[in-house]
Amino acid sequence: MAGIGGGCRVRAIAVLTCVLCVLSIAPCQIAAASTSSSGVDNPTLEFVTEELPPFNFNNNGKADGFGSEVVREILRRSNLSAPLTVLPWPRAYKMAQTEANVGLYCLVRSVDREKQFQWVGPIANTEARFYANRDSTLHIDSLDDARKAHGVIVLREGYNAQLLERLGFKNLWPVNNAIEGLRLLLISGDKTLFLVAANTVPGTMSKTGTPADAVKPLMTLTKTQMYIGFSLDTSSTLIGRLQHSLDNMKTDGSFAAIHQKWFPGAKPPAIEREPDLPPPD
Hints:
- This protein has 9 helices and 10 strands.
- It is α/β, with parallel strands linked by helices.
- Helix 2 crosses helix 8 (about 235-250).
């Protein structure tokens, strides 16, 4: 009988040990499942952009401007949160190309870029123009005229810089942001051009304290739309969620109100399913 009792005790201890093991593992599995679910529903997001007032600019360490305001409202409606950071354009551009869950705003959507990103938008209409100093005698009626300029200032790795590079321009002067470009134009004499989005010029001049008549617009080169671009590794479900929030903003008028605040009198982009992309060259 003693042998039988001892065997029962051994079996009981073994069963108890198994139960304790299961109980200790189960909370870990539940926590892991909960974390995984949370990661899908509320991913760790980051938004980056460049210094391009009034679209985006650094205001005492905080990303401000039209694009930043739109992104924050999209996040609020999507029940998401994320930091917004103003960076040099080449760095921000590379992050959005290579890192999941990084959104780059305000990014021109084009044929060349179409398959490099996933898109949420459009959030802005813009057109690029050549600008010169107010005393310049340059006349720009064609790209051939622009090729004869002493230099054409462009935003490094921006859409228009990439366009002119493909068109064989040899007189490009890349800069890191529009403020740097404006300052370079002002000290470069009357044979230099600055190719930049027209609706950023007033904000850039205001931020640098430049008189409104210091530069003059010449020929318009491109008309494009800006979006938020995400890498191909970003969840398509997330892209749809953000697009839905933006579309709702356009439907209820809140997007138009933000647009009017930053671009008075300008027509905001509507909901568009098939983008009108500018050609590659």
